Amino acid sequence: MENVIRQGRMDDLERIMALIAECVRVMQEGGSDQWNESYPNREVIAKDIEQGTLYVFEDDGTPAGIIVLDENEAEEYQSIDWVQKEGRHLVMHRLAVHPEIQGKGIARRLLAFAEDQAAREGYSSIRMDTYAKNDRALSLYLRLGYEVRGEVRFPGRIANFPVMEKLLKSAES
Protein backbone atom coordinates (compact mmCIF):
# COMPACT_ATOMS: atom_id res chain seq x y z
CA MET A 1 0.00 0.00 0.00
CA GLU A 2 1.53 3.27 -1.16
CA ASN A 3 0.85 6.38 0.95
CA VAL A 4 2.06 9.84 0.06
CA ILE A 5 1.20 13.41 1.06
CA ARG A 6 1.32 15.79 -1.88
CA GLN A 7 -0.08 19.07 -3.09
CA GLY A 8 -3.64 18.83 -4.36
CA ARG A 9 -4.32 19.10 -8.10
CA MET A 10 -7.38 20.17 -10.03
CA ASP A 11 -7.82 16.61 -11.30
CA ASP A 12 -8.35 15.62 -7.61
CA LEU A 13 -11.34 17.96 -7.21
CA GLU A 14 -14.13 15.45 -7.88
CA ARG A 15 -12.65 12.83 -5.56
CA ILE A 16 -12.01 15.44 -2.85
CA MET A 17 -15.61 16.65 -3.10
CA ALA A 18 -16.82 13.04 -2.78
CA LEU A 19 -14.62 12.61 0.31
CA ILE A 20 -16.06 15.83 1.81
CA ALA A 21 -19.64 14.78 0.98
CA GLU A 22 -19.09 11.51 2.84
CA CYS A 23 -17.62 13.40 5.83
CA VAL A 24 -20.63 15.76 5.84
CA ARG A 25 -23.05 12.80 5.74
CA VAL A 26 -21.33 11.11 8.71
CA MET A 27 -21.10 14.39 10.67
CA GLN A 28 -24.79 15.10 10.18
CA GLU A 29 -25.78 11.54 11.09
CA GLY A 30 -23.81 12.06 14.31
CA GLY A 31 -25.66 15.29 15.09
CA SER A 32 -22.89 17.71 14.05
CA ASP A 33 -23.58 20.75 11.89
CA GLN A 34 -19.86 21.60 11.56
CA TRP A 35 -19.92 21.11 7.78
CA ASN A 36 -22.85 21.03 5.38
CA GLU A 37 -23.72 21.16 1.71
CA SER A 38 -22.58 24.80 1.46
CA TYR A 39 -19.26 24.52 3.34
CA PRO A 40 -16.71 23.49 2.37
CA ASN A 41 -17.96 23.80 -1.20
CA ARG A 42 -16.41 23.24 -4.61
CA GLU A 43 -15.37 26.91 -4.95
CA VAL A 44 -13.56 26.90 -1.59
CA ILE A 45 -11.72 23.67 -2.38
CA ALA A 46 -10.87 24.75 -5.95
CA LYS A 47 -9.41 27.99 -4.58
CA ASP A 48 -7.35 26.04 -2.03
CA ILE A 49 -5.96 23.89 -4.87
CA GLU A 50 -5.27 26.92 -7.09
CA GLN A 51 -3.39 28.66 -4.27
CA GLY A 52 -1.32 25.54 -3.61
CA THR A 53 -2.47 25.32 0.01
CA LEU A 54 -4.42 22.03 -0.12
CA TYR A 55 -2.51 18.83 0.56
CA VAL A 56 -3.78 15.33 -0.14
CA PHE A 57 -3.02 12.15 1.74
CA GLU A 58 -3.06 9.68 -1.12
CA ASP A 59 -3.79 6.03 -0.37
CA ASP A 60 -3.08 3.75 -3.35
CA GLY A 61 -3.66 6.63 -5.78
CA THR A 62 -6.88 7.89 -4.18
CA PRO A 63 -7.29 10.99 -1.96
CA ALA A 64 -8.05 9.57 1.48
CA GLY A 65 -7.53 12.77 3.47
CA ILE A 66 -6.92 16.49 3.02
CA ILE A 67 -5.55 19.43 4.94
CA VAL A 68 -5.27 23.11 4.01
CA LEU A 69 -2.30 25.15 5.28
CA ASP A 70 -2.05 28.92 4.81
CA GLU A 71 -1.72 32.14 6.80
CA ASN A 72 -5.40 33.12 6.61
CA GLU A 73 -6.84 33.63 10.08
CA ALA A 74 -10.57 34.06 10.55
CA GLU A 75 -11.49 37.60 11.60
CA GLU A 76 -12.85 36.06 14.83
CA TYR A 77 -9.26 35.07 15.79
CA GLN A 78 -8.52 38.73 16.65
CA SER A 79 -10.27 38.22 20.01
CA ILE A 80 -7.97 35.31 20.99
CA ASP A 81 -5.17 35.79 23.51
CA TRP A 82 -2.40 33.89 21.70
CA VAL A 83 0.70 32.77 23.57
CA GLN A 84 2.91 33.17 20.49
CA LYS A 85 2.34 36.74 19.34
CA GLU A 86 5.64 37.12 17.46
CA GLY A 87 6.60 35.68 14.10
CA ARG A 88 4.53 34.01 11.42
CA HIS A 89 1.70 31.60 12.16
CA LEU A 90 0.59 28.74 9.93
CA VAL A 91 -3.17 28.26 10.00
CA MET A 92 -4.73 24.86 9.47
CA HIS A 93 -8.14 24.44 7.84
CA ARG A 94 -10.40 21.72 6.49
CA LEU A 95 -8.69 18.61 7.85
CA ALA A 96 -10.73 15.63 6.64
CA VAL A 97 -10.21 11.89 6.39
CA HIS A 98 -12.61 9.61 4.53
CA PRO A 99 -14.91 8.04 7.17
CA GLU A 100 -14.27 4.49 5.89
CA ILE A 101 -10.60 4.72 6.86
CA GLN A 102 -10.67 6.97 9.92
CA GLY A 103 -8.82 5.67 12.95
CA LYS A 104 -5.77 4.52 10.97
CA GLY A 105 -3.48 7.46 11.79
CA ILE A 106 -4.09 9.48 8.62
CA ALA A 107 -5.12 12.66 10.46
CA ARG A 108 -2.09 12.27 12.73
CA ARG A 109 0.17 11.96 9.66
CA LEU A 110 -1.38 15.04 8.04
CA LEU A 111 -0.82 16.99 11.27
CA ALA A 112 2.80 15.81 11.48
CA PHE A 113 3.24 16.92 7.86
CA ALA A 114 1.82 20.36 8.74
CA GLU A 115 4.10 20.70 11.74
CA ASP A 116 7.19 19.63 9.77
CA GLN A 117 6.39 22.07 6.99
CA ALA A 118 5.73 24.88 9.47
CA ALA A 119 9.03 24.28 11.27
CA ARG A 120 10.97 24.09 7.98
CA GLU A 121 9.44 27.36 6.81
CA GLY A 122 10.16 29.19 10.07
CA TYR A 123 6.65 29.55 11.48
CA SER A 124 6.48 30.12 15.22
CA SER A 125 3.14 28.39 15.74
CA ILE A 126 0.23 26.57 14.16
CA ARG A 127 -3.24 27.92 14.79
CA MET A 128 -6.58 26.31 14.07
CA ASP A 129 -10.11 25.81 15.27
CA THR A 130 -12.41 22.84 15.44
CA TYR A 131 -16.03 22.35 16.32
CA ALA A 132 -16.90 21.90 20.00
CA LYS A 133 -19.07 18.90 19.05
CA ASN A 134 -16.15 17.19 17.24
CA ASP A 135 -14.91 15.20 20.22
CA ARG A 136 -12.56 12.96 18.20
CA ALA A 137 -10.75 15.92 16.62
CA LEU A 138 -10.54 17.84 19.90
CA SER A 139 -9.09 14.82 21.66
CA LEU A 140 -6.53 14.22 18.90
CA TYR A 141 -5.35 17.85 18.85
CA LEU A 142 -4.98 17.93 22.65
CA ARG A 143 -3.00 14.66 22.65
CA LEU A 144 -0.66 16.13 20.01
CA GLY A 145 0.15 19.22 22.07
CA TYR A 146 -2.34 21.77 20.74
CA GLU A 147 -3.70 24.00 23.51
CA VAL A 148 -7.08 25.73 23.60
CA ARG A 149 -6.63 29.52 23.63
CA GLY A 150 -10.28 30.53 23.50
CA GLU A 151 -13.49 30.04 21.57
CA VAL A 152 -15.11 31.75 18.61
CA ARG A 153 -18.54 31.55 17.02
CA PHE A 154 -19.28 31.25 13.32
CA PRO A 155 -22.63 32.20 11.79
CA GLY A 156 -25.19 29.45 11.39
CA ARG A 157 -23.50 26.97 13.73
CA ILE A 158 -25.06 25.76 16.97
CA ALA A 159 -21.87 25.21 18.99
CA ASN A 160 -18.71 27.24 19.52
CA PHE A 161 -15.34 26.55 17.93
CA PRO A 162 -12.42 26.08 20.33
CA VAL A 163 -9.38 27.86 18.89
CA MET A 164 -6.08 26.08 19.39
CA GLU A 165 -2.38 26.84 19.08
CA LYS A 166 0.77 24.75 19.06
CA LEU A 167 4.11 26.45 19.56
CA LEU A 168 6.89 25.29 17.25
CA LYS A 169 10.65 25.29 17.32
CA SER A 170 11.88 26.35 13.92
CA ALA A 171 14.23 24.08 11.98
CA GLU A 172 17.04 26.63 12.36
CA SER A 173 17.04 26.73 16.17
TrEMBL record:
CDD domains in alphabetical order: NAT_SF
InterPro entries in the cross-refs: Acyl_CoA_acyltransferase (IPR016181), Bact_Acetyltransf (IPR050832), GNAT_dom (IPR000182)
SUPFAM superfamilies linked: Acyl-CoA N-acyltransferases (Nat)
Transmembrane segments: none
Record key words, sorted: Acyltransferase, Transferase
The keyword Transferase belongs to this UniProt entry's keyword annotation: yes
Boundaries of every N-acetyltransferase domain copy: 3-169
GO molecular function: acyltransferase activity, transferring groups other than amino-acyl groups
Record has Acyltransferase as a keyword: yes
Domain of life according to the entry: Bacteria
Protein name (Swiss-Prot/TrEMBL): GCN5 family acetyltransferase
